[in-house]
From TrEMBL:
UniProt keyword list: Membrane, Transmembrane, Transmembrane helix
Name the UniProt record assigns to this protein: Ion transporter
Membrane topology: Multi-pass membrane protein
InterPro entries from the UniProt entry: Ion_trans_dom, VGCC_Ca_Na, Volt_channel_dom_sf
Organism: Gulosibacter sediminis
Main location group: membrane
């Protein structure tokens, strides 16, 4: 039996009355939320343009005004939601995420925390909360963390064993790649990504150790193919389960679902024709 899905995080508080309910219905109205999405997109473009010295020299003042205006709109929206939802605002993780993202933008632009101002680009991630499809994907990734953690722990063990073996086997001849455990871990990570693993790592090592392929080939097969595919399998399985438990009006039919529906419709038509032919009046 499918369990009832939780309410959307932007639904007004049904227990709110008077002005709080009116404020909630206003700020959580689809038109207002679409406006917030547009502001987020414009703010994302603005933050990107601010990284260009040429653009800042021409329109730096306008970009700054747009950035401040977007921040003010975000603050007003959050304040209205906090007023309308009350304590229920903090019970939803996405609301807390929005609050933290906007709060980061209020960090002073000078002093030891000035480097954190670069994190204001995280405001773009508010799109994840506003678009249901993106939100479901993010929820699937979050729910897959336990399974991903177990795979990551197994991969860490494989990397550590491989780093110790590589340091002992190749550390003397190639200290720049395998001179220590941290260096070996970094080199093996490069090998796992298949980025210049042959010419950059394996071929130079095999010049001094011709049988080094006996180490690298199994490591690549296990780390690059088996382990990474396990990560993908866990995420895909979680997304599939999330799709099955989603509300009916939010579910997007999968290709095999459409095929099954078409086959059932055809079988129903064939059954109706057979019953008609078997009826006495036919």
């Amino acid at each position: 039996m499918r369990t009832a899905s939780p309410p959307e995080p932007w639904q007004p508080n049904p227990h709110a009355t008077g002005i709080r309910r009116r404020v909630g219905e206003l700020v959580l109205h689809p038109a207002v939320q679409n406006f917030i999405i547009a502001v987020i997109i414009v703010n994302a473009v603005t933050l990107g343009l601010e990284t260009s010295d040429a653009v800042m020299a021409r329109a730096g003042g306008l970009l700054h005004v747009l950035d401040v205006a977007a921040l003010v709109i975000f603050i007003i929206e959050l304040a209205a939601k906090m007023f309308a939802l009350g304590r229920a605002f903090w019970r939803d993780g996405w609301n807390v995420f929005d609050f933290l993202v906007v709060a980061i933008a209020l960090i002073p632009s000078s002093g030891p925390l000035a480097v954190l101002r670069a994190l204001r680009v995280l405001r773009v991630l508010r799109l994840v909360n506003r678009l249901p499809q993106l939100r479901r994907i993010a929820e699937a990734i979050i729910r897959a963390i336990p399974g991903i953690g177990a795979i990551a722990a197994l991969m860490a063990i494989i990397f550590y064993v491989g780093a110790v073996m590589a340091t002992v086997l190749f550390g003397d001849s190639h200290p720049e790649m395998f001179g220590s455990i941290p260096t070996s871990l970094l080199t093996l990570f490069q090998v796992m990504t298949l980025d210049s693993w042959a010419l950059g790592v394996v071929v130079p090592v095999m010049d001094a150790h011709p049988s080094a392929w006996l180490f690298f080939i199994p490591f690549i097969l296990v780390s690059a193919f088996v382990m990474l595919n396990l990560f993908i399998a866990v995420i895909v399985d979680t997304m599939s389960n999330l799709h099955e438990t989603a509300p009916e009006d939010e579910r997007q039919p999968l290709p095999h679902d459409r095929e099954l529906a078409a086959m059932r419709h055809e079988l129903a038509e064939i059954k109706a024709l057979l019953l008609k032919q078997q009826s006495p009046g036919s």
